[in-house]
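Figure 2 data, in text form.
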Amino acid sequence: MKSDRRVAARKVVDFIHVAELTSLSSYNVIAREGVIADASQSGFLVKVERSQLVPKEYRENLTMENLVGHQVVMYLPQMNLDLDGTITRATHIGKGQFEIAVKFSADVPEYWRDCLVELLPAPGELAASGEKS
């Protein structure tokens, strides 16, 4: 059986703000905010500071593994866009920071995912475009 992990090319992106990472099963907010650090046609990686975690159990522990498999939704205010998907990994990476990998929902068309990744700014692209104005 072939694994589909990391088959899509990853794109490192400028920090795209994420507001309210919310569980769709309980409608509880998992994190008040975070940033998308990289993205691919299959999903994206969200970095969250411990202080932004809402449930006390996550702020007080170094594990969030029980989130794997949860369907979540988040809002990207810079793009006025809601994204949803399934958490495939949630790990503490040190210094109070967590990485949450989210796989796009199966009903999101492939062409739409490709377009979204293409539109996400590369590091420095937002600052560079602001300087031209």
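Caption note: The chain is about 15% helix and 45% strand.
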